[in-house]
């Protein structure tokens, strides 16, 4: 059986690892390298189009020239403008037309995505941080859950990997451990807990194929988990970032006006949109800035296990070999 799990069967892959969608760090070469090694790389359409300037369909075809193995797509579906909803809908249609059958939804009600993907024979997993969001996703028909824990990069959850697994296991769908997976031992430990796979983001930034700046990659290798802090300055809600001189200058808390607007039922969506537009620009320029001056870098506590910049495929293969060698081949 090897590393076969309910997740690998859903995704049609050999190794239960997701190379998570990361804005702005997901680029076609990284997605292709992770998939070619037996994991599954996840396409982030805003990164592909806004950051790297690809036509979305042509970017998917570029990946297909590098690998014929399965890839997935991330759909951010938070309530937003009609224009954004239409654009995301079009991206999903293009992905389905180009043969993508594995989707991960985030930040909204996934029912409309589930309906469209299921009609095409695909599967949908949904990002969650606790039971109530998982229940809503299951009610909307998702096939699996990405369990985002308190060691994740980006918008981390409030709970550890073990208690979060216990909280979600009763739903009876595949669970993916997202957060804190930096080395082979972390991967094997997640499988031993009962997770059907893991999702890694920070680990895949520190790879040769990722087009993030060398300064960003070097920082991931250099820092420890105590250097990861939560900042409200990026999106208005806590985001895991590396503590840097820039972070120290701007502080970690959103201003009083922003906090007030984020709490208001009529103003929160406007404020989130404003933050989103600003963060798209900030993260794009900071993550790709080769000078290292704009040191605003997202990362999770998995940095504790990351000690080198490596090819993405080597990471996938090493993790798989280690898990198999430790007699922790999964059956979830």
General shape: globular
Spans of at least 5 consecutive residues whose pLDDT stays below 50 are: none
Major β-sheet annotation: 8 strands, parallel, barrel
Count of DSSP helices?
15
Kindly report the average pLDDT value: 87
What string, H for helix and E for strand, traces the elements in order? Answer: HEHEHHEHEHEHEHEHEHHEEHHHH
For the CA atoms, what is the radius of gyration? Answer: 18 Å
**Strand portion, in percent?**
5-15%
According to DSSP, the number of beta strands is 10
Overall helicity? 40-55%
Record the strand order, biggest sheet: 1-2-3-4-5-6-7-8
List the helices and strands and how they pair.
Layout: H1 6-11, E1 17-19, H2 28-36, E2 40-43, H3 45-51, H4 56-66, E3 71-76, H5 82-97, E4 102-106, H6 111-119, E5 123-128, H7 131-139, E6 144-148, H8 161-168, E7 175-178, H9 184-193, E8 197-200, H10 202-205, H11 214-222, E9 228-231, E10 239-242, H12 245-250, H13 256-263, H14 268-288, H15 312-325
Parallel strand pairs: 1-2, 1-8, 2-3, 3-4, 4-5, 5-6, 6-7, 7-8
Antiparallel strand pairs: 9-10
What does this structure look like?
This protein is α/β, with parallel strands linked by helices and 332 residues long. It has helices spanning 6-11, 28-36, 45-51, 56-66, 82-97, 111-119, 131-139, 161-168, 184-193, 202-205, 214-222, 245-250, 256-263, 268-288, 312-325; strands at residues 17-19, 40-43, 71-76, 102-106, 123-128, 144-148, 175-178, 197-200, 228-231, 239-242. It is globular and about 50 Å long.
Summarize this structure briefly:
The chain contains 15 helices and 10 strands. It is α/β, with parallel strands linked by helices and 332 residues long. The model has no long low-confidence stretch (mean pLDDT 87).
């Amino acid at each position: 059986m090897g590393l076969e799990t309910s997740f690998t069967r859903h995704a049609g892959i050999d190794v239960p690892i997701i190379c998570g969608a990361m804005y702005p760090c997901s680029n076609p070469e990284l997605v292709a390298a992770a998939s070619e090694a037996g994991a599954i790389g996840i396409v982030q359409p805003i990164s592909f189009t806004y950051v790297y300037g690809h036509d979305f369909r042509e970017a998917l075809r570029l990946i297909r020239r590098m690998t014929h193995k399965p890839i997935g797509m991330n759909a951010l579906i938070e309530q937003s403008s009609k224009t954004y909803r239409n654009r995301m809908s079009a991206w999903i249609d293009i992905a389905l037309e180009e043969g993508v059958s594995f989707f991960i939804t985030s930040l909204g009600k996934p029912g409309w995505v589930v309906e469209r993907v299921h009609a095409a024979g695909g599967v949908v997993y949904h990002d969650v941080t606790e039971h109530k969001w998982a229940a809503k996703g299951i009610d909307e028909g998702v096939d699996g859950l990405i369990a985002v824990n308190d060691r994740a990069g980006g918008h981390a959850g409030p709970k550890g990997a073990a208690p979060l697994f216990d909280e979600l296991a009763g739903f009876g769908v595949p669970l993916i451990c997202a957060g804190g997976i930096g080395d082979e031992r972390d991967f094997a430990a997640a499988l031993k807990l009962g997770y059907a796979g893991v999702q890694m983001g920070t680990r895949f930034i520190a790879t040769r194929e990722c087009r993030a700046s060398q300064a960003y990659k070097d920082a991931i290798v250099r820092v420890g988990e105590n250097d990861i802090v939560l900042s409200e300055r990026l999106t208005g809600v806590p985001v895991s970032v590396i503590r840097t001189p820039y972070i120290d200058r701007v502080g970690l808390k959103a201003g009083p006006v922003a906090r007030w607007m984020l709490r208001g039922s009529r103003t929160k969506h406007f404020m989130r949109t404003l933050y989103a537009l600003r963060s798209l620009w900030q993260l794009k320029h900071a993550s790709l800035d080769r000078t290292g001056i704009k040191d605003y870098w997202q990362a999770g506590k998995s940095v504790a296990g990351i000690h080198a910049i490596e090819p993405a495929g080597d990471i996938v293969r090493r993790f798989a070999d280690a898990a198999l060698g430790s007699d922790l081949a999964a059956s979830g």
